Amino acid sequence: MKKANLLKILFLVSYWAMAVAFIAVFTDVVLTYDAPRYGYPPIEYDITSVLLGGVLVCLTAGGAMASFEVLYFNRLLRKQALGTTLLFRTAFYLANSYLLTSLTVLFLTSQRIGQPLFHEATLALFARYVLSPKAIVNTLFLGVIVAHSLFILQVAEKFGQGVLMNFLLGKYHRPRAEVRIFLLMDLRSSTAYAEKLGHTKYSQLIQDCFSDLTETVARHNAQIYQYVGDEVVLTWELAKGIDKDNCVNAFFHYDKSIHQRGEYYKQQYGLIPEFKAGVNLGDVMVAEVGELKKEIAYHGDALNTAARIQEKCNEFARRILISERVRDALDGSREYDFRAVGSFRLKGKEKPVSIFEPVAPALSEA
After folding, report:
1. pTM for the whole thing?
2. Which residue segments constitute the domains of the chain, with CATH numbers given?
3. pLDDT (tens digit per residue) in 23-34
């Protein structure tokens, strides 16, 4: 399981467990608990049992639900509108919350009166709880908690990996210097594709292409900086981009993903899209910008140089080109050899920039 998915599952389980704990503590401390009114025998409210039972349910059933959400449900509803997915998920988990809460109460009731789960007395008290206002209130509360937790995940995904947390912590509220790697990928022959497909079909093609980028971004620990037309910009902190050659492997993994869905693209659009890429690293200033629409922006020459390097792909018929600084950072790579393309004075640059093509060792010997 990928680290990003595991963190999402842990977040959901922890969030739901805290909600259950809140219900137990609130009932015990704030309310005057009237046991007979809610269908229980007139005994003291045992907060310890409720807490342990609730947390146990969250760790087991909640863990299963969170895994289902992250690993399956999220993919199933990925292309739906945010409001639609939120409503559908909330209704689904509201029903599950009601079921799990009821089963937990059935178990606790059985323990309190010392009778089996399906004993007549246990079921009678359980039936009174199921139809009580408390059951409805608890279920609605859990439904709100589930909706809120899912909303947080949805917003985090809309911002991109790690971006929401940076906003909340104010990491870039004041500009700060970082060394970053940028990978710019641009659709080849985009003008010809647009003319062939028309505006609507071409936009759907771009949607599909960038949807298929999801797995690549997660696997290679990248952040999506921005989409610009048919171009996407990925970025890494230096250490993360160099680790396992992520900044180069991301391109080849994405290319492989596109070709694995080649039949789909041929059927829908009559073509298999191909991208070209430029990679560079350098010093940038990172800052929150905007008031009505906020985003984290990168200011510096590193991004512009990556764009200029990408433009050389067409000139030399290459799929991906990298700067000398990236080549040096990847020194010692076991996955690639780096074939020199040349040294060029790029637009806006005073000094020439050396450019290389990453090639798998088996290909470089051919």
Report:
1. 0.71
2. 3-159 (no CATH), 163-364 (3.30.70.1230)
3. 766 665 544 444
